[in-house]
Amino acid sequence: MKKKSIIVVSDTHFGREISNYKAFESFSDWLLSLEKEPKTVKLKDGREKVISKPDLLILLGDILELWDPVDDDPVYILKHALKPVEKIMQLGCDKVYVAGNHDEDIGYFAGKYRLSNGTELEIIPRHYPENPEQSIEIGSHRLFFLHGHQ
Length: 150
Hints:
Layout: E1 6-9, H1 21-33, E2 39-42, E3 48-51, E4 56-60, H2 75-89, E5 94-98, E6 111-114, E7 120-124, E8 127-128, E9 136-138, E10 141-143, E11 145-146
């Protein structure tokens, strides 16, 4: 499976006190802005790289904090997650949600879902791609995604 651009996000823990959902909302706005025009970012080594709209967004586990939400109240999960997740679902690329250890119950909803913008959300319980032999090719690299702590 060939892809040009993949963005991977993990461990946002929406619903937990340490979650910085407002920063992620800003990141979501930045991702959406890539649909209008590519952005140039400076890498740690000083080089510049042009980032364009992703072909795929992978949510690599622990996006939601189902183990330990604030005050053990699941309402906090919705409060923290609703706006930023709604924004990233608007992205004009397919999305894959790989369940992590703090949100493994998401795996019960495994399957492919068509979103209102015509893109697809695929929920997977453990790793992506599901078959390790079907790794994703980017250039000369073959990629396989797994959330830790399983």
